[in-house]
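Input record (one chain):
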Amino acid sequence: MKTTFKMLLATMLFMMSAQTLAKITCQTPRGTKVLVIEDQKVSIRQPLRFNKERSVASVAGVRTKLEGSGFTKVLFHNGSKHIIHIDDQKSFSYVDDYLIIRSSEGHEMTYPLECKS
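The corresponding structure, as predicted from the sequence alone:
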């Protein structure tokens, strides 16, 4: 019984540590939006000229769904729903990683993301 409990506890601790996300920085084409993705929050930045960045928002009310070695994060910012999908954290892909911004009127824009850890 003690062995089973220890194995269960070790498995739970491993799963909790495996689910933490490393800090990932992603940007849309031409760098119009820069996302800094952390475990429990997402910072949305809009670069200014000469590589200076102005932090627009840091959103903490983020829902995360883990999917294999990737994840999908859903957050609301400025009245729009933002969906960030990273297919594989170990191998970022310009094709499989994307940002969807959906307005309250239902208009939707999808941007490919270029990410790095």
